[in-house]
Amino acid sequence: MKVILIKHIHSCFAGVSSEDIYLEREFDLPFAPYPNMYINYGDFEAHIKAVSYLIEKREFRCYCEEDKEIYDAQLYHKEHRDIKEIVKEYEEIGWEIRKEE
């Protein structure tokens, strides 16, 4: 089954910001994904929080746990990496910046 994993990377201490970045990664699973499912594959790991199915595209969209590194750092007034560094780290293990539809 075609599965599109989607990950939200927070850019600041806000629920959603125009500076946030969304990543995606396509996966094939032998069964339907479900909420609270964990996927571990080598150095890749994802925790699925929500699932939707697009009938016309015959694909599942799985919304993974967000990356809150910057969000948490700003919450506690700590230093943090730039969002570009965080995105690069995800790209190195197969994630891509999500294109708007």
Brief summary:
With 101 residues, this protein is of the alpha+beta class. Helices cover 16% and strands 39% of the residues.
Description:
The structure is a single chain. With 101 residues, the protein is an alpha+beta fold. 16% of the residues lie in helices and 39% in strands. The chain has two helices and six strands; from the N terminus they run βββββααβ. The chain has helices at 69-75, 83-91, and strands at 2-9, 21-28, 38-41, 44-54, 59-64, 96-97. A six-stranded mixed beta sheet has the order 3-4-5-1-2-6. The longest helix has 9 residues, at 83-91. The chain is elongated, with a radius of gyration of 14 Å.
User: Strand content of the residues, in percent?
Assistant: 35-45%
Number of strands: 6
Mean pLDDT: 93
How far is the N terminus from the C terminus? 21 Å
- Spell out the helices and strands N to C: EEEEEHHE
H/I helix tally = 2
Helix content: 10-25%
**From the helix content, strand content and strand pairing, which structural class follows?**
alpha+beta
Record the SSE blueprint.
Elements: E1 2-9, E2 21-28, E3 38-41, E4 44-54, E5 59-64, H1 69-75, H2 83-91, E6 96-97
Parallel strand pairs: 1-5
Antiparallel strand pairs: 1-2, 2-6, 3-4, 4-5
